[in-house]
Amino acid sequence: MAKYKRILLKLSGESLMGSKQFGIDEVRLGEYAKQIKEIHEEGVQIGIVIGGGNIFRGLSGAGKGFDRVKGDQMGMLATVINSLALSSALTVAGLKAKVLTAIRMEPIGEFYSKWKAIECMERGEVVIMSCGTGAPYFTTDTGSSLRGIEIEADVMLKGTRVDGVYTADPEKDPTATKFDEITYDEVLRRGLKVMDLTATCMCKENNLPIVVFDMDTPGNLQKVVCGDNIGTLVHN
User: Fold this and answer.
1) Would residue 99 count as lying in a domain?
2) DSSP letters of 21-83?
3) Minimal CA–CA distance to 161: which of 87, 54, 56, 58?
4) What is the C-alpha radius of gyration for the chain, rounded to an integer number of angstroms?
5) Per-residue confidence of the chain (236 residues) as pLDDT tens digits?
6) Are 95 and 37 in contact (CB under 8 A)?
7) 180 in a domain, yes or no?
8) How many domains does one find in the chain?
C-alpha cells in the first residue's frame, strides 16, 4: 500500500551512466523504468526531474572557460536528452510518459506549466520535467524542489548512489555514520550536502520532506513509496 499519493522523483544525470564513464547506460535506464512502473502500478502519481551531469554540467563548464549562462543552458539541454531517454524507456515498459520543458522547444517536449503537469499525472501519465528552472545559476536540485512544490507533491524522493544522508561523504570517510532522519535545520547547521543551499531552503520553507535513498538497488523505490524505513528522511 503506497504511503504517498503524488511524488517528485529526483534522479542525477550521473546515475544514468551506470557502469559507463559518460552518457547513458541502457541497462540502468531499463532498471529505473521497471522501478518506476512498480510504483505506478501502486497508483502513485509520478513527476520526475533528471540532472544532466552525465553529459554536461554548467558549473564545471564555467570553470573550463565557458560563459556561465551558456554553460548552464548547455546543461539544461543535457537534461532534455536524459528526459527523452527515460521517456522512451518508460514507453517500452508500457507506461505513458510526457516530457515537459521549462524552455519552449516543441515538438521535442511541451512547455511546462503546473496545471499541465498535474492534469497529466491525474490521467495516469508519468511526467518528466526538464530544463531545470529554465534559468541559469540554478541547479537541477533547485529545479526539483521548485517542481515538487508546484505540483503539490507529498514528498521528494532523491535517488542517489548512496543509501542516505551521512555525517560525511561515506565514499571518502569510512567513519561516516548514517542518519535515519534529520531536520532541515540540522542539515543547514552541519553544512551537509544533501542538496544545494537554495534547494534545501525552498523545501524547508515550503514544508516538502525529502527521502534520500539508494535508487541503484532494484526494488528500493517501491520500498520507499510503501513507507519502509530505508534511506534518510529530511523534514522540518
Assistant:
1) yes
2) SSS--HHHHHHHHHHHHHHHTTT-EEEEEE--TTT--HHHHHHTT--HHHHHHHHHHHHHHHH
3) 54
4) 17
5) 889 999 999 999 999 998 888 899 999 999 999 999 999 999 999 999 999 999 987 666 666 777 889 989 999 999 999 999 999 999 999 999 999 999 999 999 999 999 999 999 999 999 999 999 999 999 999 999 999 999 999 999 999 888 999 998 888 888 999 999 999 999 999 999 899 999 999 999 999 999 999 999 999 999 999 999 999 999 99
6) yes
7) yes
8) 1
CB contact set of 32 (below 8 Å; sequence gap of 6+): 11, 15, 16, 86, 89, 215
C-alpha to C-alpha distance for 126 and 48, rounded to whole angstroms = 8
What is the domain range of residue 83?
6-235
For residue 211, count CB atoms less than 10 angstroms from its CB and return exposed for 0-12, middle for 13-18, buried for 19 or more. buried
For residues 11 and 140, give the distance between their C-alpha atoms in angstroms, rounded to a whole number.
9
Query: Phi/psi of residue 129, each to 5°?
Result: -105, 115
Asked if residue 12 belongs to a domain, the reply is: yes
HSE at residue 86, side-chain half, CA atoms within 13 A, is 36
CATH number at residue 104: 3.40.1160.10
Sign of CA dihedral 75, 78, 84, 87: negative
Place of cell 517501491: 222
pTM above 0.70, yes or no: yes
Beta bridge partners of 181: 233
Amino acid residing at 9:
L
**Is 1 inside any structural domain?**
no
